[in-house]
Amino acid sequence: MQTDFFIDSSLVSSTRILYTPSLFARSSLFHLQETGTLQALHPHASARNGLVFFIFLMEDAWEAKDEREEEPLFSENIQEIKEYLDRNFRSKISLDGLAEKFFINKFYLSRIFKERYGTTIGTYLLQARVTYAKQQLRFTDRTLGEIAEDLQMEMNYLSRIFKKAEGVSPSVYRKQWRGSEK
C-alpha cells in the first residue's frame, strides 16, 4: 500500500526487518507496512558493518562445537533425575545419594545436570524448597518452623535462603501476601 502523505522521490525504501525501535527508527521512519517494508526520510548508515562477519564466525564455531560434542550417553535419564528431585525435594538429598541411586558418577551427574538445566543440583533443590515455602506461607497458617521441619531443614537456614531468594524474610513475605488479599 503506497501512502499519499509524501509523494517524494527522495524517500528511501528498504525491506529490512526492524527488531527494536532504535533512535534512528523512532526519529526517521515515515511509513512501516505489515509486509516488512519501510520508507525513511533519509538513508541509514549501519553501525553494524562487522556484524555479518561476526555472525558467520559464530555460526562456524557453533557448527564445529556440534561436531565435537555428541550428546552424553546418560542424557536421556537426566530428565528422570530432575523428576525425582521434583517429587522428593522435601527429603534430604545428597549428590552422593543421587549418584548411587542412578548409578552414575557424581561429578558427571553434576556436569550434565548443569549443562541441561543451567543450574546446579543444589541450587535447583533450594529453589524448589523456597517455592514450596512460599506456597505454604501464602495458603496455610503453618509456622516457618513447621515448614522447615517438613523440608527437613533448620528453620534459621530456611529463613536465610528464603530472604536471599525473595529479598524479604518469610514473615514479611506472609504479611505482604495477606495484606494484598484484604
Kindly name the structural category.
mainly alpha
Rg is: 27 Å
Mean pLDDT: 76
Low-confidence stretches: 29-36
Determine the number of helices (DSSP H or I, runs of at least 4 residues): 9
Measured by DSSP, the beta-strand proportion falls in 5-15%
Distance between the termini: 53 Å
Give the % helix: 55-70%
Estimate the global geometry from the Cα principal axes: flat
Strand order of the largest sheet: 1-3-2
How many strands appear in the DSSP assignment?
Answer: 3
**Strand count, sense and closure of the main sheet?**
3 strands, antiparallel
Q: Could you spell the SSE succession in H and E letters?
A: EHEEHHHHHHHH
Task: Give structural attributes.
flat; 182 residues; three-stranded antiparallel sheet; 9 helices; mainly alpha; 59% helix
Structure notes:
This protein has 182 residues and is mainly α. Helices cover 59% and strands 5% of the residues. The protein has helices spanning 23-28, 51-68, 75-88, 95-101, 106-117, 121-139, 144-150, 155-166, 170-181, and strands at residues 12-14, 29-32, 38-40. Strands 1-3-2 form a three-stranded antiparallel beta sheet. The model is unreliable at 29-36 (pLDDT under 50).
Structure in a nutshell:
It is built from nine helices and three strands.
Question: Topology, pairings included?
Answer:
Layout: E1 12-14, H1 23-28, E2 29-32, E3 38-40, H2 51-68, H3 75-88, H4 95-101, H5 106-117, H6 121-139, H7 144-150, H8 155-166, H9 170-181
Antiparallel strand pairs: 1-3, 2-3
Helix pairs in contact: 6-8, 6-9
